[in-house]
Amino acid sequence: MASTEGLVPITRNFLASYYDKYPAPPLSDDVSRLSSQIRSLANDLLLDSPPSQEESLLIEEADRQPPHKIDENMWKNREHMEEIIFLLKRSHWPATSSAPEDVELANVLGKLSEKFEKTLNTLKSFQAVNSDRIFNTVMTYMPQDFRGALIRQQRERSERNKQAEVDALVNSGASIRDRYSLMWKQQMDRRRQLAQLGSATGVYKTLVKYLVGVPQVDILDLFFLGFDLFFGFIRPICSSFQSSESGCPQ
């Protein structure tokens, strides 16, 4: 079990001051230019081919402001990419002939689908790796005995139950939108669990401390302010509580 000496509560201001030392590079001007071009092309397509009711829902979703929180933003990116991949399936392509322009269009659509598949898989892997990394880091502050094993078993069991819930929804014929609504609800459930742990008082807090071996203040703050990472929520936060001056751990 790692020492908790020197740990401090992870607050919004603490994280902001940490990341101020590592400013993100500005976006290329090409991003704005290409986004405008894509929007113009999409509007032209809508004039030639009015959207169905289901397609209108996707258009409304795309027109919304991006979520401010990075964790929700990542999930929305995944949802949008899955919708795009679904629409790029060959069965959804317009009727084509052997004309050169149709052959070129089919080639472009195929390459687009491959790129989105690759990007989606990269994002899934990125989220999963960071989830495990944070969980394993937090577990170093837990007792390395049967209590730590119980925590891991509970997490694994909880995640299996959540995945079974998603699988059942998919098998019922639910849409991509419905599936991601459920997955986001599951993330909020994890967050509520952490909120209950972070705000525990009295007998319950004493019981948690005794059974889990959680130090009284700092690790509870870490759990609460780290949101859903302890229970598998996927958000790539650096281990800034270690007072590192070398940037994010690789």
From TrEMBL:
<feature type="region of interest" description="Disordered">
    <location>
        <begin position="45"/>
        <end position="65"/>
    </location>
</feature>
<protein>
    <submittedName>
        <fullName>Uncharacterized protein</fullName>
    </submittedName>
</protein>
